[in-house]
Amino acid sequence: MSLTTATTAEQIRAVHQARHTGRGREVVVTTILLVAILAAFALSLSIGDFAVPIPDVLGALVGRGDTGTHFIIIELRLPRALTAVCVGLALGLAGAVFQALLRNPLASPDMIGVTQGASVGAVLASITFGISGIALSFAALAGAVVTSTLIYALAWQRGVAGYRLILVGIGVAGALSSIVSYLLTSSDVTVSQDALVWLTGSLNGSSLEQFWPLLGALVVLLPLTALASLTLPVLQLGDDTAAGLGVPVERSRRALLGCAVGLTGVAVAAAGPVAFVAFVAGPVARRLLPTKGAALVQAALIGALLMLVADFAAQHLLWSSQFPVGVVTSLIGAPYLLWLLSRANRIGKGG
Amino acid sequence: MTPAIDAPPGEQPATRRQPPARVRTSTGLAGVLGLLVLLVVSITLSLVVGSGHVPLSDVWNGVFSPDRSVEGQLIMRELRIPRTVAGLLAGVALGLAGAVIQGVTRNPLADPGLLGINAGASAAVVFAIGWLGITAANGYIWFGFLGAAVAATLVYGVGSLGREGATPVKLALAGQATSAALIALTTAMLLKDTETYDRYRFWQVGSLTGRDAEVIAQAAPFVGIGVLLALALGPQLNALALGDDVARGLGQKVGLIRVISAVAVVLLTGAATVIAGPIAFVGLVVPHAARMLAGADYRWLLVHCLLLAPSLLLVSDVIGRLIARPGELQVGIVTAAVGAVPFVILVRRRKMAEL
């Protein structure tokens, strides 16, 4: 039966069916991602220089392991794995929000200056003022917030066009990188090289004391982002359409940008600017769910999975152990990025 | 993707392009003379100003009849003259490279630093020094060129895919993405190698000091070839400014022009990076300033860039020596601070695509 003669009831049924298939796929993808995260989490707790079988891991987690196992699992491996998951969630979500909001698949926080702002904050604090620990995290967060405010203000011209925000961000990122380079020359070489490890993104120093603030920040930021992202599908239709549909465009955009910057800031504060996680998560999620728009939840899960797997690879698979996790995410992310870039440009979506 | 009022250059129909206004010879000559004076002043400042006090008589003698037993003249010979020569060469190279890239991509935001070409050269040099153990300048300079060539090909290739060609956003993102990838690789190579890292970090920041005379001497001929190629491209870039179709109609071989331009850019950027490290924004800002002085005729524009860029670099270097006494700020920091402002202004301009 041709479309023009279809009855309304049949059309409604067709729409329902399309929605149902989409939702079915969404449930499957989300479940697979959750299972994969759980598996990677268990593996990273269990495998290491001193292998702990999974039952013993579970025992240690509920407080019934011997002191040695307890120390290895609870003190060493658990904080690291938990930090990886939370940082991955935050970066994946932030990247997907930026990409959806700026309507450019390449506009993740590490491309447009937000991450560089956090880096300047942290390197300034650690090299120039000798700050470490929680205060360092606050410096990184402050750097991200100040930089994004600056970028937003500089891109403002009776509203903020996505492409202008991207270009201003790239210019600011260039200037900030040279500040980081300068700071790296202004200290002793070992201090500077430690800062370089941090700048690559590393989970080597993770501890439970650093994990709790991260978790606290996520508990606040995740619901806020969920709330703010309610307007995202409409914003993606374009500013004029969104305004016509009654959405306060600039206010919604500011709320979403604020959440995404906050997420980027706390993630960078916890583990350094882990390269490419924020960038890769969104595009992968959208490819898994082509009909789902921004696919924020799945992007966050992919970010977490990527962090766990990359950190596992950095610890156990690379030729030299204890490489920072950022090296692995770069090795995975950079080729994917270039491939994506050429594909996006070929179909005319690169900007 | 982008709102129609801010359409990137590739989306404008070729018929709407205006031919560049002719520059009157007298105006052009006046500009060149003015810039020559500026360049002489900049060179003098770079020779005279510094942390150690050198009497003017020693500055004069140090340049023209050096006597190494006098401390002031030794400072001239060992520090300030090499530094000034490095600034001259790197400045000339970056300014012309920027002008040629902007002309050939018809993209006002093109710059060797922002397009990742510098990052390509520096990644390749670090690889050569750190992993292959090539520490002689005449060895790793080739890696600089190779890295610049690979990065330029990659960025332009990826950025120009698609119907509208190389728009500012696509090129900038491709450049940023390639830089990010290359910087990550460079960092991975440096994490375990404290000695190479210690040398690298003073080079990475973009600085005119600490480079041997040997490195400068190695790079100078390449800058020379690049300059000749770039200056010879003036008429061809004028034709390209009218759009590929018109240029072809005027009898230009567009593909050949792009290849020669790419060779010039790679030689200039690679040599500049080997001399002074990856300095961003000079190649972006200088052509725009020159355009205000000389108009859009590339024959004059390139000569203006040739004179203006080294002045900018040398004056930035002098500023860096003055504002952070008794230490100094490297020239790369100063140019980034000076260059980011015009960059943002360019992005904010309503019709930013006017090339």
UniProtKB/TrEMBL annotation, chain A:
InterPro entries: ABC_BtuC-like, ABC_transptr_permease_BtuC
Membrane topology, from the record: Multi-pass membrane protein
Pfam families: FecCD (PF01032)
Membrane-spanning segments: 27-47, 81-102, 122-155, 161-184, 211-235, 255-281, 293-317, 323-341
Protein location: Cell membrane
Chief location: membrane
Keywords: Cell membrane, Membrane, Transmembrane, Transmembrane helix, Transport
Matching SUPFAM superfamilies: ABC transporter involved in vitamin B12 uptake, BtuC
PANTHER family: FERRIC ENTEROBACTIN TRANSPORT SYSTEM PERMEASE PROTEIN, FERRIC ENTEROBACTIN TRANSPORT SYSTEM PERMEASE PROTEIN FEPG
Family of the protein in this entry: Belongs to the binding-protein-dependent transport system permease family. FecCD subfamily.
Name by which UniProt lists this protein: Iron chelate uptake ABC transporter family permease subunit
Organism whose genome encodes this protein: Kineosporia mesophila
UniProtKB/TrEMBL annotation, chain B:
Pfam families xrefs: FecCD
Protein's UniProt keywords contain Transport: yes
Residue numbers spanned by region Disordered: 1-22
Membrane topology: Multi-pass membrane protein
Domain of life assignment: Bacteria
Transmembrane segments: 26-49, 81-101, 113-134, 140-159, 171-191, 259-286, 298-323, 329-347
Gene3D superfamilies xref list: ABC transporter involved in vitamin B12 uptake, BtuC
Entry-linked PANTHER family: FE(3+) DICITRATE TRANSPORT SYSTEM PERMEASE PROTEIN FECC-RELATED, FERRIC ENTEROBACTIN TRANSPORT SYSTEM PERMEASE PROTEIN
Assigned keywords, A-Z: Cell membrane, Membrane, Transmembrane, Transmembrane helix, Transport
Stated family: Belongs to the binding-protein-dependent transport system permease family. FecCD subfamily.
Localization: Cell membrane
Protein name: Iron chelate uptake ABC transporter family permease subunit
Record carries keyword Transcription: no
Main subcellular localisation: membrane
